[in-house]
Amino acid sequence: MSASLSGDLVDRGTRDLATGSVGLDEDGQIVTYTVAPGDALYAIGDRFCIANALTIATLNHTRTIQPGEVLLLHPDSSVPWVPYFNPADAPAGYQQIPYQLAIEAMGAAAAASDLDAMRAIFADDLSGLFPNPADADVIAEALDAGDLEALRQMFA
User: Fold this and answer.
1) What CA–CA distances, in Å, run from 71 to 10, 96, 113, 125, 150?
2) Which pTM does this prediction carry?
3) Are residues 73 and 100 in the same domain?
């Protein structure tokens, strides 16, 4: 399980509907974008030369963006990413909506640094939705370790 935006991100500067702030890593690479009021995914994509701005939404497990939300633009490739729509190995007829709702709830709990809520959502709603138990085990290990940094990226 991994996710990425292809190519190097280039910040072409603020523009209409993309006035938020950029977060950089220690090497000066663009890592995050904080949504400003009035921002739109397509304008954010244009600002960073991202051909398909919907990739930002998928990468961040969301359908809509809100002011103050921190979007992950350059994930750490060593941290597993949990697919948003359904597990990669989901069989035909997979129940996508319960999975997506659990993924969104995990993301909200991760953003709030609420490990207890994440553990409850995982145990009650999410863990049994993975066709491959090894995928659920990766999440369980991060929850057991209390690794909020990894969990925030998994559920950006």
Assistant:
1) 16, 23, 16, 24, 15
2) 0.80
3) no
Residues lower than pLDDT 50 in the chain: 1-2
Q: Return the residue matching tokens 């659990």.
A: 102
Torsion angles phi and psi, residue 33, rounded to 5: -140, 125
- Segment 141-156, tens digit of pLDDT: 999 999 999 999 899 8
Last residue of a domain, one of 49, 78, 107: 78
Structural domain of 126: 96-154
On whether residue 83 sits in a domain, the answer given is no
Residue 1 pLDDT: 47
Which residue in this structure is represented by tokens 């939404």? 57
Largest CA distance in the chain: 45
**Residues β-bridged to residue 30:** 24
Sign of CA dihedral 39, 81, 113, 98: positive
Query: In total, how many domains does the chain have?
Result: 2
- Do 70 and 134 lie in a common domain? no
